What does this fold into?
Amino acid sequence: MSNPAPAEAPCPLELRDVCVSFAPQRRTLLSRSRTTETVRAVDDVSLRLEQGKALALVGGSGSGKSTTAAVAARMLTCDSGTVLHAGEDVTHLGGAALRARRRHIQTVYQDPFASLPTRFTVRRIVEEGLLIHKIGAGAGEREDRIVDALERAHVPTALLDRLPHQLSGGQRQRVAIAAALVLEPAVLIADEPVSMLDVSMRAGIMQLFDDLRSTGTALLLITHDLPAAARHADTIAVLQQGRIVEEGDASTVLSRPAHPYTQALLDATPTAAPPRP
Ligand SMILES: Nc1ncnc2c1ncn2[C@@H]1O[C@H](COP(=O)(O)OP(=O)(O)OP(=O)(O)O)[C@@H](O)[C@H]1O
Ligand SMILES: [Mg+2]
It folds into this structure.
């Protein structure tokens, strides 16, 4: 009798029919303006992130990219739909079980000014995840892991004892990347991860993401930049007003965009400066 086919490994991250709305804000005594309409930030979004693959989520400002990322990382609970981590339904998971899951799904947030704890040094910021998840036999092993993660994220170890306000925006962004990397997550969600970096540093960090992908990490890469998405992702999903309007192979979406919104995003991408006469 032949052996049964091995069971397929569950996909590291999946969203099924996810919807998120934000309630209108109330008018306050000091503010005359108010939003009267509910914002449908994510509207029936389904995504699958495969091991060792990068999916780029692109769209204009306010299209719902960060909200989708927050639901995927279970930092936010969706109104309806399902979130699966490694095949397990985590849509309504809470408490210690959710904290344990977060080790495997790490996020680099869009705004490194808001996301780093102000009173922690760089060393402590990167160490925090190791302490929470009890990784590393002692202080010496943790220090090795911290230094390794900082080096991979191109952060000089001379910055180990600095506080976030003593760093540039780009340095903060790289510290946030190191804090995610140190946990060796199965899934890395990177929300505009290189927006504060100069061109040479961008290339280094994007190369790091390519390396992570080739060693099996699943990447959700969020960006406005469609050509960059095509260079560093396997598939692209285009979000417009919370809905996925186009999804497909990255180079095909770039070269033959099927939806007018994708074409408009491409037209809005700044092109390289023309050569000097
Ligand atoms: N906490 C909130 N309360 C109310 N509305 C929100 C909240 N967070 C996001 N929104 C709204 O939801 C929509 C999607 O926001 P989101 O931050 O996901 O967009 P984005 O695609 O990440 O934009 P950007 O490219 O500017 O970062 C926007 O209309 C935004 O104003
Ligand atoms: Mg955003």
Q: What stands out?
A: The radius of gyration is 20 Å. The first helix runs from residue 65 to 72. The first strand starts at residue 13 and ends at 22.
